[in-house]
Design a protein that fits this description.
The chain starts with a helix and ends in a 6-residue tail after the last strand. A 5-stranded antiparallel sheet has the order 2-1-5-4-3. The protein has 7 domains: about 260 residues, Rhopdopsin 7-helix transmembrane proteins (Up-down Bundle), CATH 1.20.1070; about 100 residues, Beta-Lactamase; about 140 residues, Beta-Lactamase (2-Layer Sandwich); about 100 residues, PAS domain (Beta-Lactamase, 2-Layer Sandwich), CATH 3.30.450.20; about 80 residues, Beta-Lactamase (2-Layer Sandwich), CATH 3.30.450; about 110 residues, Helix Hairpins (Orthogonal Bundle), CATH 1.10.287; about 140 residues, Heat Shock Protein 90 (2-Layer Sandwich), CATH 3.30.565. The N terminus is likely disordered. It is an alpha+beta fold and about 1000 residues long. Strand 16 and strand 17 form a beta hairpin. It is built from 30 helices and 27 strands. GO terms for molecular function: ATP binding; phosphorelay sensor kinase activity. This is histidine kinase. It comes from Pelolinea submarina. It catalyses: ATP + protein L-histidine = ADP + protein N-phospho-L-histidine.
Length: about 1000
C-alpha cells in the first residue's frame, strides 16, 4: 500500500512540476516571443535526445521496434528543430541562412516526426536492424539539409507574412501522414494495455491538432503559434512518459502481453496434453501432476499429488524409473515401457521418460512424462491386421495391380524441363522413341495374382521385370497419359491404356495411378491398378474403397489445430491448419479470424465459437472452403479453453480434411440416383426370367409383358435372355408399348448371371425412317417423270429440226413442181376441149386418171407449202355450226358412211381463225371417210370443258394400232398408199397456233376419236 502511495505521489509531483514549467514558458512567451520560441524548442530537443539516448543504450534488450523507430526518428526531428532555432531571425550563428531556411528546417523536423509516428505502430512486436535504421535516417537528414542549404527553394512566407502555396501543401501533407498514423495506432488497440493505448493515441491526436493549428495560422499570429507549440510539447511529454517511464522503469507493464499470453497458452497446452507430466520427490511421492497423469493413474477420480509411485508399479519397474536419480550426472535421462494397474484395476501400457529434477544445483527428485500407449498398441495391432488384410486384398484383388518404380522416368522428364520443354504432350507425340525408352526405364516392383495370370500365365520364364513385355509397337502411344501424369507432378491420375498378353490378346484398361504417400518427390513407389473397361465402374469403386481403407490405416495424417479467443483473435495455429486454408504458414498471432477466412466463413466460425463458449458441449461441425484448387470439406471439433471452471477464455478448433469422403458420398449418391432418375426403362432380369429391378420407366414394359398378373416374363423374352447369357453377346429387340415403339438393349452380365436392359423410345426414329423411305420412293418417281419429260423434250427437238428441214425443202421446190403440173393440167384440158368426140372411152379414162393424179400432186404441194409457212392465226368469233355446214357441202359423205352431227343448239362461239380450223376439221372428216372401208359412221359431238370447247370426231373405222398412236402427228408418217403424212401434223400445228390442243383415242378394228379443244369466245368487257 505504501509503495502504491509513493508511486501516486511521485506521479502527481511530476505532473505539477511539468505544468509549472509549461505555464512559466507561456508567460515568457507573452514577454519575449523569440525567447519563448527558443526555450520551448530547446526543451523539445532535450526530451527527444534523452528519449533516443536511453533507447539506444538499451537497444540490445529492447525487442520491440516501436521504441527504436520512435527514438531514432525524434532524434533527427530534434536536429532539424535545432537548425530551425539556430537559423531563426535574431540568431546570428548562420548569417548566410535566412528566415526561409529556418522555416524549411522547421517543416523538415515536423515531416520526420510525422513519418516516425506513421512507421512506429507498424513495427510493434517486430525486430528492426538498429544500424540500418540509423543509417537510413542519417542519409535522409544529410540530403534534406543539403537541399535546404544549397538550393534556392520557393519562399514559405509571402512579403505580407502569410503562408505561400508550397508551405500550405507541405503542412497538409504532414497532417495526412499523422492521420494515417492515428489509424495504425487504433488498429493495435486489442494488443495494447488500455492505459498505454490511450496515451499513445492521445499523443498522436495532440500532434495532429498541433500541426493543424500551425498550418491554419497562415498569418503567423503569435497566440495561435504559442497554442500549437504547447500542444506539440505535450505530445512529446506523453511520448517521453510512455517510453521512458512505462517502457523502461516499469517493464512489466509494456505494451503487449506476450509473456502473459505465452504463459496462458503454455498452461492450456499443459492441461490439455494427452501425456501425463509429473514431479516426484526423492521418496517417489508425487508433488505435482497434470490432469492427464491423474487420468492415467486414478482414472480421473482425484489428484495424483500425495500418492506414491510404488502404489502403481512394481519395485523392479520403480527401480528402472528412478535408477537414474542416484546418478551423479544431472543431465542424464532414461526411457522405458512398462505395464501398470490404475486405481480402477485396469491394465495400461505406458512409455516413461524420466530425468533428474535439479534444484539449486542438487538432484531433488524426478521429472517424469508418462505416455499412455494402450490405445496406440491396440491400434498398432489393428494396423498390422489391416496390413495383412490389405496385402491379401492386393494379391487376391479382382483387378490387376502393380507397384512400379518410376524414379528414372521422373529424372528423364526433369531433364526435359531443364532443356526448356513446356508442351510435354506435343513432345511425347512427336518423339515415339522417347516414349518407348521411358517404358524401358519403368521398373516393376511387384504385382498381384491377376497380373500374373494375365501376363505370366504360369510360365516362370515370363516373370515381368519390364513394362516392354506388355506393350507392342502401336500401344506405346497409350503410355503418354502416364508420362503426362509424371510430368505434371500428379500423385493420382486416371487414363486409358492398351496392353497385350503373351497369347497376343489385347487388353483395353482404365488405369488408376497412385503415388504412395511420401514417395511423390521421385515416384519411386507408384501403385498402378488396371481395370477392364467393361467392368470399370465396379472395379473402380472396389479399388477406391480399398485405397481409402489402406490410406486411413497406414497414414498418420495430421489435423489442423487453432486457438481463438472469444472475439475471434488468433492465439495459436499450426501449419496443417494453414495448409487446409490454402495459405502460407506465417506468424498470425494477434490477427483476427477474418484474416484467415473470407467474410462468410469467418462470421460462421465466430458465431460457433461464441455458441460453444456458452455451453458444456464439444460439438463437431462439417463445413467447406472454396479454394483455388476446388471446394474442400472439413470436420471441425470445437472445445472450450477454460481459464478456470467458470471462465471460458477461448475455443480450440481441431479440423479434419474429409473432402475425399464427401466426394465419394456425392458420387455414390449420384450413382444410386441414376437408374431411378432415368426416364427410359432400366431393368435387371435373372436367367430364369425374374425381374429383380425396374425403374419407373420400365413399368409400361412389364405391363405389356403382363408380368404383374402372371409373375413371369413371356417365353420369347426368357429365350432371348438365356441366349444372351449363354453366348455372352447383347441383344436388341423392339416392343410396342401403347402407341410407341421401345427399343430394348439387353447387356449380359455373365459372371453375375443376369441381364441389364436399357430401353429407348424409337417411335420418332421409326417414323422418320418410314418418311425417309416414302420420300425415297417419291424421289424415284419424280426422277422417272423428269427423265421421261427430258426424253420427250429431246424427241420434240429432233422433230422440230426435222420439220425445219422439210419446211426449207417445201419452200424451195413447191413452186417449181406446180408449174409442170399446171402445164399438164392445161394439156389435159386442151385435149378434152379439142378432141372430145375423137377420144375413145379408155383414153377418156386415162385423162381422168391424169386429172386425179395432178389434183393429188397439187394437194401434196399445198400441204408442203402450208406446213412450210403456216401463217399466224387471225382470231375472230366463229360459229362451229356454220363451219360444219359449209364443210359437208364441200365434202359430201360417201354412200358407205353415215354422218351424224350431235351439237347443242346454244353452242357458244369460239375465238379462232375460221379458215385454219376449217382446214383441220376437213382433214379429220376426210381421214374418217378413208378409215371406213365398209359401211360405217362418223359422229361429231361437242361439250364445254372450263374455258374450252371440245369437238369429238368419232368414226367406226379400222382404228389405229397402239404402236402408231404416238407417231401419227409426226411429219411424213402415214399408213395410206397415197399422201405423204402431213395432214395430222399440219392440223396439230394449226390447232396449237389457235390456242387449242388435239388428242386421239383409238381401238383397233373398232374406231378412232379425235378431240380438238378450241378457246371459247372471250366475253365482252
Amino acid at each position: 500500500m505504501n509503495v502504491q502511495g509513493n508511486k501516486r505521489v511521485g506521479s502527481n509531483f511530476a505532473f505539477v512540476i511539468s505544468t509549472c514549467i509549461l505555464l512559466l514558458l507561456n508567460i515568457i512567451g507573452f514577454i519575449n516571443e523569440l525567447l519563448f520560441h527558443f526555450l520551448i524548442e530547446t526543451i523539445a530537443i532535450i526530451l527527444c535526445s534523452c528519449l533516443f539516448t536511453v533507447i539506444w543504450i538499451l537497444r540490445e534488450k529492447i525487442e520491440n521496434g516501436y521504441y527504436k523507430i520512435l527514438g531514432i526518428g525524434l532524434l533527427f526531428s530534434s536536429f532539424f528543430d535545432l537548425m530551425h532555432i539556430l537559423t531563426f531571425t535574431g540568431m546570428p550563428i548562420f548569417p548566410k541562412l535566412g528566415v526561409n531556411h529556418s522555416f524549411y528546417f522547421f517543416l523538415a523536423g515536423r515531416f520526420f516526426q510525422a513519418v516516425s509516428f506513421l512507421v512506429a505502430p507498424i513495427c510493434i512486436g517486430k525486430k528492426i536492424k538498429n544500424g540500418l535504421t540509423l543509417l537510413f535516417y542519417s542519409i535522409s537528414t544529410v540530403i534534406a539539409t543539403f537541399v535546404i542549404v544549397h538550393y534556392s527553394l520557393p519562399p514559405l512566407l509571402s512579403p505580407a507574412g502569410s503562408h505561400t502555396s508550397p508551405r500550405t501543401l507541405i503542412d497538409f501533407s504532414i497532417i495526412v501522414i499523422l492521420i494515417l498514423a492515428f489509424f495504425f495506432v487504433y488498429k493495435k488497440k486489442e494488443v495494447l494495455e488500455t492505459k498505454v493505448f490511450w496515451i499513445i493515441l492521445g499523443s498522436t491526436i495532440l500532434a495532429i491538432l498541433s500541426e493543424t493549428i500551425i498550418s491554419l495560422n497562415t498569418n503567423e499570429t503569435h497566440l495561435v503559434s504559442v497554442l500549437g507549440l504547447n500542444l506539440r510539447m505535450i505530445a512529446y511529454f506523453l511520448l517521453f512518459q510512455i517510453t521512458i517511464v512505462t517502457g523502461i522503469t516499469k517493464p512489466q507493464q509494456i505494451f503487449y502481453h506476450e509473456l502473459q499470453t505465452s504463459r496462458e497458452q503454455l498452461q492450456n497446452l499443459f492441461n490439455n496434453l494427452n501425456e501425463g507430466i509429473c514431479i516426484l520427490d526423492q521418496h517417489e511421492k508425487f508433488i505435482f501432476s497434470n490432469p492427464a497423469a491423474d487420468l492415467i493413474f486414478l482414472g480421473g477420480k482425484g489428484r495424483l499429488t500425495g500418492h506414491n509411485l510404488s502404489k502403481f508399479v512394481s519395485s523392479e519397474e520403480l527401480q528402472k524409473i528412478t535408477g537414474e536419480t542416484n546418478n551423479s550426472n544431472k543431465n542424464s535421462s532414461s526411457s522405458l515401457e512398462l505395464e501398470i494397474t490404475d486405481s480402477n484395476q485396469q491394465k495400461k501400457s505406458l512409455i516413461v521418460f524420466s530425468s533428474p529434477r535439479v534444484v539449486e544445483g542438487n538432484i531433488d527428485g524426478e521429472f517424469i512424462i508418462f505416455h499412455d500407449i494402450s490405445e496406440m498398441k491396440e491400434n498398432r495391432s489393428r494396423l498390422e491386421e489391416a496390413g495383412h488384410l490389405y496385402q491379401s486384398l492386393f494379391m487376391d484383388a479382382p483387378i490387376r495391380i502393380w507397384e512400379n518404380d518410376y524414379s528414372e522416368i521422373k529424372k528423364a522428364i526433369d531433364d526435359l524441363k531443364d532443356q526448356g520443354v513446356i508442351d510435354f504432350k506435343d513432345y511425347f507425340e512427336k518423339n515415339p522413341q522417347f516414349v518407348k525408352r521411358m517404358v524401358q526405364l519403368a521398373k516393376v516392383r511387384t504385382y498381384n495374382k491377376l497380373v500374373e495370370e494375365t501376363y505370366v500365365q504360369g510360365n516362370p520364364t515370363r516373370k515381368i521385370s519390364s513394362l516392354t513385355q506388355i506393350f507392342w509397337k502401336e500401344s506405346y502411344k497409350t503410355y503418354i497419359s502416364e508420362l503426362m501424369a509424371i510430368a505434371t507432378n500428379q500423385t493420382r491420375a486416371t487414363y486409358e491404356m492398351t496392353t497385350i498378353t503373351p497369347d497376343n490378346r489385347i487388353i483395353y484398361s482404365i488405369i488408376n495411378l497412385s503415388v504412395v504417400s511420401g514417395e511423390n518427390s521421385d515416384y519411386s513407389r507408384v501403385i498402378i491398378s488396371a481395370d477392364d473397361i467393361t467392368e470399370r465402374e465396379k472395379a473402380r469403386l472396389e479399388l477406391q474403397s480399398s485405397e481409402e481403407k489402406f490410406r486411413l490405416l497406414a497414414e498418420n495424417s495430421g489435423v489442423g489445430i487453432g486457438y481463438f479467443d472469444l472475439k475471434g483473435n488468433i492465439l495459436y495455429h499450426n501449419e496443417k491448419l494453414m495448409e487446409q486454408i490454402g495459405k502460407p504458414f506465417e506468424d498470425d498471432i494477434g490477427k483476427h479470424i477474418s484474416d484467415l477466412y473470407d467474410k462468410e466463413v469467418a462470421e460462421r466460425t465466430l458465431e460457433r465459437i461464441r455458441r460453444v463458449s456458452r455451453s458444456n458441449e464439444t460439438p463437431t461441425f462439417v463445413d467447406y472452403l472454396d479454394l483455388p484448387e476446388g471446394r474442400k470439406w472439413y470436420s471441425m471439433t470445437y472445445t472450450r479453453i477454460m481459464e478456470d471452471e467458470n471462465h471460458c477464455i477461448g475455443v480450440q478448433i481441431i479440423s479434419h480434411d474429409i473432402t475425399q469422403q464427401k466426394e465419394m458420398e456425392t458420387q455414390l449418391e449420384s450413382l444410386a440416383r441414376f437408374p431411378r432418375e432415368n426416364p427410359n426403362p432400366v431393368m435387371r432380369l435373372s436367367k430364369n426370367g425374374i425381374v429383380t429391378y425396374s425403374n419407373e420407366g420400365g413399368y409400361p414394359i412389364l405391363k405389356v409383358w403382363n408380368y404383374e398378373e402372371k409373375g413371369k416374363i413371356p417365353d420369347y423374352m426368357k429365350t432371348i435372355i438365356q441366349n444372351c447369357l449363354n453366348f455372352g453377346k447383347p441383344e436388341i429387340i423392339e416392343e410396342k408399348v401403347n402407341d410407341n415403339i421401345v427399343s430394348l438393349y439387353m447387356a449380359p452380365i455373365t459372371d453375375m448371371n443376369y441381364v441389364n436392359i436399357y430401353g429407348r423410345d424409337v417411335t420418332d426414329l421409326k417414323n422418320a425412317e418410314d418418311k425417309l423411305l416414302e420420300y425415297s420412293k417419291n424421289l424415284e418417281k419424280i426422277v422417272a417423270e423428269q427423265t421421261d419429260e427430258l426424253l420427250l423434250t429431246q424427241e420434240r427437238l429432233a422433230r422440230q429440226e426435222k420439220l425445219a428441214v422439210m419446211g426449207q425443202l417445201a419452200s424451195g421446190v413447191g413452186h417449181e413442181l406446180r408449174n409442170p403440173l399446171a402445164v399438164i393440167n392445161n394439156a389435159v384440158y386442151m385435149l378434152r376441149l379439142g378432141a372430145t368426140s375423137q377420144l375413145s372411152e379408155p383414153s377418156d379414162d386415162y385423162l381422168d386418171i391424169i386429172d386425179q393424179e395432178v389434183a393429188s400432186a397439187n394437194k401434196i404441194i399445198t400441204d408442203l407449202l402450208t406446213f412450210a409457212r403456216i401463217k399466224p392465226a387471225n382470231l375472230i368469233s366463229t360459229d362451229i355450226h356454220v363451219c360444219l355446214e359449209e364443210l359437208f357441202k364441200k365434202f359430201v359423205p360417201p354412200e358407205n358412211v353415215n354422218v351424224k352431227i350431235d351439237l347443242p343448239q346454244n353452242l357458244p362461239k369460239v375465238y379462232v381463225d375460221d379458215k385454219q380450223i376449217d382446214q383441220v376439221m376437213a382433214n379429220l372428216i376426210i381421214n374418217a371417210y378413208q378409215a371406213i372401208p365398209n359401211k360405217g359412221s362418223l359422229t361429231i359431238t361437242a361439250m364445254i370443258e372450263k374455258n374450252m370447247l371440245r369437238l369429238d370426231f368419232t368414226d367406226s373405222g379400222i382404228g389405229i394400232p397402239p404402236e402408231n398412236l404416238e407417231k401419227i402427228f409426226e411429219p411424213l408418217f402415214s399408213t395410206k398408199t397415197k399422201g405423204i403424212g402431213l395432214g395430222l401434223t399440219i392440223s396439230k400445228t394449226l390447232i396449237e397456233a389457235n390456242g387449242g390442243k388435239i388428242k386421239v383415242r383409238s381401238t383397233l378394228n373398232k374406231g378412232t376419236t379425235f378431240s380438238i379443244y378450241l378457246p371459247r369466245e372471250q366475253p365482252s368487257k
